[in-house]
Structure formats: C-alpha cells, structure tokens
Amino acid sequence: GGAAPLAASAPRGCLAGLAPPCAAMQVTEFNDVKVYDLSAGKSLPQFLEEARKKQKSLRHDEDFRKRIDIVQDFEFNIASGRIVVSPDGEFVAATGVYPPEMRLFELRGLGMKCSRGLNAEVVDCQFLSDDYRKLVFLMEDRTVEFHAQYGYHHRLRVPKAGRSLAYDQESCTLLVGGSSADVVRLDLELGTFQTPVPLKVIEEVNQLAVNPAMPVVSCAGDKGLVESFDLRDSKKLLRSLRVADPEDADAAVGAGISGDNVTCCAYSPSGMHFAAGTASGVVKVFDIRSSKPLAQRDHNNGFAIKSVVFHSRGSDFKDLLVGSADQKSVKVWEAGSGKIAASVESKYTINQLVFYPNSGMFFTAVDNQRIGVYFVPSLGLAPKWCSFLDSITEELEEGTKKEVFDDYQFVTTDELEQLGAKELIGTKFLQPYMHGYFMDYRLHAKLKAALDPFRYEEFRKERIRQKIEAKRTMRVRVKTGKKVDVNQSFHQKLQAEAEEGETEGASKKRKEAAERAKALLNEERFKSIFEDADFAIEDKDLSAEKATTSLSSMLPGKKAGRAAGRK
C-alpha cells in the first residue's frame, strides 16, 4: 500500500533535500554537453514484481527510494507508440500497448489524469483543442476515433490505411495521409468528408505537416519527393521538393522500403524553415523559399529517420535547432550549420521524438515500459512544472566541477632546490602561488625520478621480497615461541597473557584476557601487525595496552566486546 506515495513523492524529495534521488539519474556526456536520462532504471511494475518474489517491502529498497519519477505512471505495460503535448503545455497524451491504451497526464499535478482503452493500436494522434478536451486518433484498422472530455465521442472509417494526421485550426480541416495517392479531408465544422487531394507524383504519404504561418500542407512520400498544396485551392498543387538523392533509391533499408523514401517532415514555429528525413538516415533543412538545403545531418546508423521536429532556444535563427531520431539514437543539431548540440543513444527502439516547448526536455516513445524522458540544460531551462530539475543539475555540476590546479603539484623553493629545478623560476613551467609555485604533476614526477633513479629498482626488489614471503607463509609453522620482526614487545605481552590464563587458579579476568590475546595472535586479519613495518606501534602515540583494547573491540562476539569495555 505504501508503494504509490513513495513513487509520487520522489521529485518532492529532491526539493526538500531528503534522500538523494539524483543517484538514480544517468548522465551521458557528448562534447562537454550533458544529457540527463530521467527514465533510467526499473519501472514500477518491475519493482513490485521483484518485491513480491523476494517477499521484501519496497520501503527498504534503496534503488526504489532513490529513483526519479518526473510524472507518476509515465509508462505502459509493454511499449509506448505515440506522444503529443497539448498546445497549452499543460497535458501530455501518450498511447501504448498491450492492451491498446491512451493515457492522459496532467503535468502540473505530475501524475496521470485518466486512461482510456482503445479497440486497436494507434498510428497517430492529435490535440484538436488547446487542452485535453478534444483529441483524435488514427487507428490501425483504418478508423479515425474522436474523443471528448467525457471519453469516446465518434468513430468513422477512411478508405485506405492511414499513416499520419494533420489538423488546420483556421479551416477546422482534418487531413489523413496513408497508403494511397490521395489525402483524405474531413471538415470538422460541418462534419462531412471533402474532396480528397490527389497528388501528382508520389503514390503514398508517410507524414503530413501543416505550415503554422501559411495555409500550406506538405506531404512526405516515396520517390524522394515532398509535395505541397494550398488549403484554399487544393486542386492546384505547389512545386515539389526533392529531398532524397536519386542514387539513394538503390539502398534498401527494409522489406519493401526504398532508400529514397521521405519518412518524416516538419515545419519550424515561424513557418519559414522545413526539415525532412529520409529512409537512408539523412535529415535536410530547407528555407521554404529555396530548394537548396541549408544544412543536413547523416545519422550514419543505417536506419530510417522516424521523427524530426524543430526546437527553439531563442528568438534568433542561430538558436533554431532540429531534433531527429532513428530507431536507436536521437540527435539535436543546429538548423543553420548542422553542428551537433546533443546526442542520445537508446537501448530500446525509438518510435517518436517530442520536445516540450521552450525547455531543455524531450520525450521519446520507445519499445519499453517506461517512456523516455531526457533533460539537456544546454538546450534550455526545465519546464515550470518540474523546475526542481535546474537545482538538481546545478548541484551535480558543482559536485563534479574540476579545480583549476587539479593537474598541478605545489612545491616550495626548498623543494625546487632539492629537485634541481631552481632554474625554472620565472619560466612558464612554474606558476607563482602564495609561498611557492605550481608545477605540472608530470614534470614533477620526471624530476623526482631523475633525482632518485634507483627508487624504482628498490620498489621492485621490495615487491619481490613480499611475494616470496607470501609464498613462505603457506608452509606449516609452529606458532608458539616464534620470533616476529615488528612489534616484538607487543607480541611478547600477548603471549604472556595467553600463558597466564592457562595456569591453575587463574581469575576470570585473566582468563578473558588470555582469550583475547589468543584471538589476536591467531586471527588472520591482524597478522600484518607483526609482519609489516607500516603497522609498527610507537610508544609515544599508542601503548601496547591501548592497542590490545582497540583490536579486541574488532573481534566478533559479545563476550569479548563486554570484556574490552570493562577493561
């Protein structure tokens, strides 16, 4: 019964400075850019199943207590397929299997608002309103399903299997593209089908994209082309854009999939830039006024691009980024130059990439129970609903911050003279600091080795001697009356105490002291005290009596511990 409160209070624990859940956060670094994986680790069902098998409460599981759940129950039984963020940024809708299900999450509450079962797996989904009240789903069984605030509202069937949805708010038109050369149009204001838009060259549509600034819809399809049309006059198609090179057609990337297929596309928030990804793993960015690409990025994984999206971290074009994902990796790069800004490798197959607006967080729908959640501070701040991530990452940055003089050795003038390096004063090899100088630790090691060239040879001989002595200890030796090289007086005192306890009429106190002395003499853990010179006891620091008491307290058994305490 206490599992859910623990999971829900994990982010709040970060705020209050309680148990450090940050220990469960995985950090990857690429070109000094850190990416924080907030979905790493086991899912809640996995924790519950493991606790049931071991018959152990989760409140005693350190991994469970230190895990991070940005949004509670942000997972599915098997895998997640699609993710979409509402226009107002307050809700996230995600679909997954199995069984087919839609889960709606309220980000301000850091939890799930509701879940709804579906009749088939979801191919694509869209928000039709600013909040969660109106949604539409494109199903695998060729149906389009509309949901309202209260749940299921209406279902209709499209002529061909659909692959992508697009919605134009100005005309209330829902567009469905799929395995045909026509784009199906539905007028949601009148509730009727409109005349489909016939495409010129491409025979199937992989994804639709609506320009946010102009009434233009682009269709990414086969034959390396992207065809566009004006929503005001759908009969007149605009100029086609060639994205894939003709030679890519020979590179087959899957069963029946040609390398020149344009698999996904997207418009920038300003509507002036367009990005498209191909089946050969290449993403290109265009200015809508030119057919020449501004930049391109090859994933070099041999997989088709599954998702492409624009992300802005500022108002300038230099701050415009492109996020692209194939089934194994996510790359975020600058739209103008193609320079990599962040990179993530996933252990699971990626189905979709979605950025949370105006932040450094993005989600990935993957073939795993937990939905992928990543935070990159260099891409933007954390969203308002989880602003505690900024403080967590700042603490981690401060904890791993490298000091300026970590690679330097501090030496005084006298030490320089001993090393024979006094001539280096005033050169670039020495940095004055307080009463001495900072020297590169590699240079310091070389000077020290040159000063004492036989030091390594002595170290080598000492190691050989220790190995020989270790082999000799395998022989059977008589322990009584043996001579020791280190702490001889302490050894003699222990032997005397052991002999006094064996005499007839010895008191209980002497017998207990004899037992402690025998334990110290025969214990394997303390044999180095009489063999290794590093454990030599100095009379001015520690007497033999104090050593006996301190070592006796480390022996097992309550009786020895009480006897040592009374002494």
Protein topology:
Layout: H1 3-8, H2 10-16, E1 26-30, E2 33-37, H3 44-54, H4 62-65, E3 79-85, E4 91-97, E5 101-106, E6 111-117, E7 122-127, E8 135-139, E9 143-148, E10 151-157, E11 162-168, E12 173-178, E13 182-187, E14 192-198, E15 205-210, E16 216-221, E17 225-230, E18 233-237, E19 241-242, E20 262-267, E21 273-278, E22 282-287, E23 293-298, E24 307-312, E25 320-325, E26 329-334, E27 340-345, E28 350-355, E29 361-366, E30 372-375, H5 388-399, E31 408-412, H6 413-419, E32 430-433, E33 436-440, H7 441-451, H8 455-472, H9 488-500, H10 508-522, H11 544-552, H12 558-566
Antiparallel strand pairs: 1-2, 2-30, 3-4, 4-5, 5-6, 7-8, 8-9, 9-10, 11-12, 12-13, 13-14, 15-16, 16-17, 17-18, 17-19, 20-21, 21-22, 22-23, 24-25, 25-26, 26-27, 28-29, 29-30, 31-33, 32-33
Helix pairs in contact: 9-10
Overall body shape: elongated
Rg value: 35 Å
How far from one another are the termini? 50 Å
Low-pLDDT windows of residues: 1-23, 474-480, 557-567
In terms of DSSP E residues, the strand content is: 25-35%
What is the assembly state of the chains in this entry?
single chain
Helix content: 10-25%
Number of strands: 33
Q: How can the largest sheet be summarized? A: 5 strands, antiparallel
Give the strand line-up of the largest sheet: 1-2-30-29-28
Structural class: alpha+beta
Report the total helices: 12
Mean pLDDT over the full residue set: 79
